[in-house]
Amino acid sequence: MAEQRAEDNGAGPLERGGPKLSGGVDAVLLLGRSGHQVAAGEGMESLAEAVRATGRYLAVHTAIVERGLASLPEGLEACARVGVRKVLVIPVFFGRDRSLAHWLSKVALRWSRSRDGSAPEVIFTGAIGEHPALGEAVVRAVADAEGEAPVSVNDFESLEDPSAWSMIPPQERHVLACMGPRCTSRGAGKLYVHLWKSLQKRGLLRGRSGVHAAQTGCLSPCNLGPTMIVYPEGIWYCGLTAEAMDRIVDEHFVGGRVVEEYARGPGRHERPAPGR
Ligand code: FES
Q1: Does the beta carbon of 189 sit less than 6 angstroms from any atom of ligand 1?
Q2: What domains can be seen in the chain, in order of their start residue?
Q3: How far is the CA of 111 from the centre of ligand 1 (A)?
Q4: Where does the pLDDT of residue 158 fall: very low under 50, low under 70, confident under 90, or very high at 90 and above?
Q5: Has this prediction a pTM greater than 0.85?
Q6: E strand map for the chain
Q7: Does residue 51 have a pLDDT over 90?
């Protein structure tokens, strides 16, 4: 299996440029690098739609390495749900990043082992940025653009930016929620949406007693993820779940008491959560 090949000589399939397809692929997972912008997710979805339109696969899904709602394990799970046998993962990004490729193989392997022998085979291709047809597509896009109506920078009437960008929002607390790749692979994207809704429900999104929440890249202690830091106390919360988020909102943000069960201090090696 590809998951087992991922352990050969320490190199993952993505690092080696991906295997030649021998057939039998019945699911495709398009894996984007960052889901920071909504437009990026929409672009991925339209690529997925093009693959679906071929009618060749039982499942076609998208996933995101960091700052995204569907992580690689969640995307694989979506494919497995319809009983596919072989999932082809196509990294929709540029560049050969050996450490990222190696880590992605490990994420897929962990996911596979978590399913107790019921996981479909997972194989990776090289990143789409290395595909020779991409150069042709860019040349064609440039040629097509010459025939389109021009959008000039001179068309802007005002150079002013929105006034809201000039004000630090009133707040009692500030939350930095990690959306780095490791935390995203453990569901941080969905947890952030959960936190947002939970704050909204309790009227804590705005105002002087509110919580200003922001997403960050990797905060460092990835093995303890999903992580977040709460200021002004400087509390690190680790191994977060939806239930933990609810307790933190109720007990810490409303009640003023740190939820010790999930709080960790700096300078100590902590035990990773089970299965991580
Ligand atoms: S990815 Fe979250 S701590 Fe590294």
Answers
A1: no
A2: 2-130 (3.40.50.1400), 165-264 (3.40.30.10)
A3: 18
A4: confident
A5: no
A6: 27-34, 59-66, 86-92, 121-124, 173-178, 211-216, 228-231, 235-237, 263-264
A7: yes
